[in-house]
Amino acid sequence: MHLNKLSIQRAQLNAKGIVTPVRLYLTADHKRVVTDGKEAAFLLASAGSEVPPREAEKYGVAALLASLTQKPAAPPIPAAPPVHKKK
After folding, report:
1. CB of 35 closer than 8 Å to CB of 69
2. pTM value?
3. Which among 21, 39, 47, 75 is most buried, taking Cβ atoms within 10 Å?
4. pLDDT, position 2
5. What is the rounded CA–CA span in Å between residue 51 and residue 17?
6. Which of 86, 12, 87 shows the shortest CA–CA distance to 56?
7. pLDDT tens-digit readout, 19-53
8. pLDDT value for 28
9. What is the pLDDT of residue 11?
10. CB pairs under 8 A, 24+ apart, for 20-28?
11. For the chain, what is the mean pLDDT?
């Protein structure tokens, strides 16, 4: 998932917590936060809601949101197959 600059600005830490631009889920063991997938077990925050400071720090929400803002690496371009000329 890739977030735009506006979404980055909205995910700001303030005295109330972090406003998240995406849904955040806890894993079944309540040890990590994920944005989706098979590991998502419990909804922690819906898009646009605040994650309280204690939970944001405990689960590393700021780091997770920062990792989502990084552009994914471009896939490598495969080498062209050799061209064989007929004689």
Report:
1. no
2. 0.62
3. 21
4. 53
5. 5
6. 12
7. 889 999 999 999 999 998 899 999 999 999 999 98
8. 94
9. 53
10. 20/45, 20/47, 20/48, 20/49, 20/50, 20/51, 20/61, 20/65, 21/47, 21/48, 21/65, 22/47, 22/65, 22/68, 23/47, 24/51, 24/61, 24/64, 26/59
11. 79
CB-based contact 18:12 (threshold 8 Å)? yes
Provide the token pair at 47.
Answer: 């898009």
DSSP 1-35: ----HHHHHHS-EETTEEE-SS-EEE-TTSS-EES
Number of neighbours of residue 61 by Cβ within 10 angstroms: 23
> Closest by alpha carbon to 22, among 55, 68, 82, 83?
68
DSSP 62: H
pLDDT at 74 over 80: no
- Residue corresponding to tokens 């590991």: 39
